[in-house]
Amino acid sequence: MNPTIELLKSHRSVRKFTDQPVSRELLEELVSAGQAAATSSHVQAYSVIHVKNPANREAIAELAGGQGYVATCGAFLVFCADMKRPTEAAERTGARVVRGMTEQLLVASVDTALMAQNVAIAAESEGLGICYIGGIRNNPQQISDLLGLPDHVYPVFGMCLGYPAHDPDVKPRLPVEAILKEDTYSDDSELVAAYDDAMHAYYQSRKGGPKDTTWSQNLTPLFDTKLRPHMREFLVKRGFEMK
């Protein structure tokens, strides 16, 4: 493997950090690397909030589901899908702007995810650990109020950044054969069954302590209890009407 592929394949979520701060200079370099990601029609439909205020960090940690590392990591970023900047820029040229389209929500969300992943890779190349915080969407209105987010901007996820204080294992991924299909979609249930066995073995032997579960079993909350039904109403109120 070349060094870039090796780095990508070594990713793991880090949730324990040393007290070493992440410098502003490095943070700006990471965000600049994030901006180099592909962006739909060069819209760059994202903004990043660097949350420095300790009280706000503590509040977000609780709002995101009691994830204490939000408050203790070296730097905490909230990645926001931002259609305010590009629509207002277009309007200033005299263009007729239609807001609230579903495609705009998709473009902004995808742009934000691509940009954030570049930040993550750049951070890991500098020896930092990262952890995405999807729990931001547990209480998106409170988070938006705390960060002063205007209409047409919504918080997609957070990211903890810092120097790792532990060395977690790399989680096995689904086999490439289950993901990479030729010409048409094909059934991969047998590959998933084999992957469940591999994940069970991983959970039994991982450094953080054994756990008796599989990949399929871990999916249950995502389709049962962690549904976040409030998100549609929240997005509509933010101006993402999904017309």
UniProtKB/TrEMBL annotation:
<dbReference type="InterPro" id="IPR016446">
    <property type="entry name" value="Flavin_OxRdtase_Frp"/>
</dbReference>
<keyword id="KW-0521">NADP</keyword>
<comment type="similarity">
    <text>Belongs to the flavin oxidoreductase frp family.</text>
</comment>
<dbReference type="InterPro" id="IPR029479">
    <property type="entry name" value="Nitroreductase"/>
</dbReference>
<keyword id="KW-0288">FMN</keyword>
<dbReference type="InterPro" id="IPR000415">
    <property type="entry name" value="Nitroreductase-like"/>
</dbReference>
<dbReference type="Pfam" id="PF00881">
    <property type="entry name" value="Nitroreductase"/>
</dbReference>
<protein>
    <submittedName>
        <fullName>Oxygen-insensitive NADPH nitroreductase</fullName>
        <ecNumber>1.5.1.38</ecNumber>
    </submittedName>
</protein>
<keyword id="KW-0560">Oxidoreductase</keyword>
<dbReference type="GO" id="GO:0052873">
    <property type="term" value="F:FMN reductase (NADPH) activity"/>
</dbReference>
<feature type="domain" description="Nitroreductase">
    <location>
        <begin position="9"/>
        <end position="163"/>
    </location>
</feature>
<keyword id="KW-0285">Flavoprotein</keyword>
